[in-house]
Amino acid sequence: MTIMQRLSHAWRALMSPSFPPDEREDELTVALRCDLATTRLELQEVQEALAAARTQISTLEKAQAAQIRDGIESVLEKLFTSLAAPLSQLQMQAALLDSGTLVAAAGVMTLARQFATMVERAGLEPIGVMGETIAFDPEIAQPLRSGSQIEAGDMVRVRSIGYRYHGRVLRKALVEQEQ
To answer: pLDDT for 37-93, tens place per residue?
Structure first.
């Protein structure tokens, strides 16, 4: 608000009908009314600035959300692009098996390894190696057989690999106690 607008508002406040001009006001009352009018103008300016800031924050939040969404989509698109070829080949192998055509296990395992390598590059981390002996940690492993009494630190053999993503366990490794 310009200085002229502020002066105009202050003048209107001083000359408002609630205080007829024929009443004599002392200097303190006039000063207080001027201060009140100024404060009202300042409050109005602050409210307008706050509304503008809220609008700007909303716009920035929407832009940030779109940017995050676009980033996620870009990463997923790269991952799916790298997975498309081996996944297509696996589907072809499955169709051949369904039609009765024999499929070489070595070819299927090559595709499976490619697939595993690609998801590991994307951040999926295997827990354990098939047949490996490790110390049991209930945070990352679970007994293969229910009712097994395995204590933390006991030596166990990995029977099924687990997976974690960015430190969060998605699937625990399945283990058996060493004999």
So the answer is: 889 889 999 999 999 999 999 999 999 999 999 999 998 898 888 888 888 988 898
126-179 topology per CATH: Nucleotide Exchange Factor Grpe; Chain A, domain 2 (2.30.22)
Phi, psi of 138 (to 5 degrees): -65, -10
Q: Please report, for the chain, the start and end positions of each structural domain, with discontinuous segments joined by +.
A: 126-179
Nearest CA-CA partner of 169 in 107, 122, 132, 126: 126
Both structure tokens of 40: 């009202």
Query: What is the distance between the alpha carbons of residues 128 and 168, in angstroms, rounded to a whole number?
Result: 15
- pTM for the predicted model, two decimal places: 0.57
Report the alpha-carbon angle 123-170-86, nearest 5: 50
Contact 134, 155 (CB under 8 A): yes
CB 169 within 8 A of CB 139: yes
Tens digit of each residue's pLDDT (9 = 90 or more) over 82-120 = 888 888 988 898 899 899 998 888 888 988 888 888 889
Determine the Cα–Cα distance for residues 136 and 168; give it in Å rounded to an integer: 18
Q: DSSP 3-state assignment of 127?
A: strand
Q: 3-state DSSP call for residue 125?
A: strand
